[in-house]
Write the structure tokens for this entry.
Amino acid sequence: MGFPLDQALIDAAVALANHRYPQGEAVVAALRTASGKVLTSVSAEARVDAACLCAETGAICEAHKINEAVVASVCLYRQSAADPLQVLPACGICQERLAFWGLDVEVAVPDTRPGHFWQSRTLRELRPFYWDEPGS
């Protein structure tokens, strides 16, 4: 393991997408805990949109269950098996869920530079005026 958010964490999410969703749409996540464990999960669809769960949710719940802090998170999406995987930045709800472990949690965001797929940002960078941080 190099950094909390590294290519190995991205690769874990890619492997899950290819295994769980060899055909069609895929929304998957991989999180790394402070001890180096990689937890993966998938989105949960429901007939009512408000009941759907983001891909990170299962792994976040697993981290709480095993009492380990999350230090990095990546979410990947593709519309069909013919489409490339894309990095989805954590939505506002997942940013709030991840902020439980502090604003230094790293999350993957898309990188538009040629030849690059992702880059790392902390929650603090994504949310410079976080509501629960004094002085922000």
Summary: The chain has four helices and six strands. The mean pLDDT is 93.
